[in-house]
């Protein structure tokens, strides 16, 4: 019989005590549904594509400087 790792046990215990229905729904979504959810959440935040591009460039610059 397999024993669950302690982390998994804790996660299951939390789910039983405080179920997160949204997380459970996300886990069972297929790829198309996940993409749609990402698009919807992006719309809610109203991210300007130029700002997003700039933040990605900034991230790459910072990452490159660390190396």
Question: Your description of this structure?
Answer:
It is a single chain. The chain is built from 4 helices and no strands. It has 67 residues and is mainly alpha-helical. It has a domain at 33-67. The radius of gyration is 19 Å and the shape is extended. The model has no long low-confidence stretch (mean pLDDT 72). Residues 1-40, 52-61 have a biased composition (Basic and acidic residues). Residues 1-67 are annotated as: Disordered.
Give a brief description:
It contains four helices and no strands.
What key attributes describe this structure?
67 residues; mainly alpha; 4 helices; 78% helix; extended
Task: Output the radius of gyration.
Answer: 19 Å
Query: Got a strand count?
Result: 0
Following the backbone from N to C, one meets helices and strands in this order, namely HHHH
Continuous helix count: 4
Portion of residues in beta strands equals under 5%
**Which word captures the global form?**
extended
End-to-end distance: 45 Å
The helix content is: over 70%
Region (Disordered): 1-67
Biased composition (Basic and acidic residues): 1-40, 52-61
Topology of this structure?
Layout: H1 6-17, H2 21-27, H3 31-45, H4 49-66
């Amino acid at each position: 019989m397999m024993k669950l790792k302690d982390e998994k046990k804790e996660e299951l215990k939390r789910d039983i005590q405080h179920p997160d229905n949204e997380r459970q729904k996300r886990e069972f979504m297929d790829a198309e549904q996940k993409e749609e959810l990402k698009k919807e959440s992006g719309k809610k935040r109203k991210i300007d594509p130029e700002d997003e591009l700039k933040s990605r460039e900034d991230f790459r610059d910072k990452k490159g400087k660390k190396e």
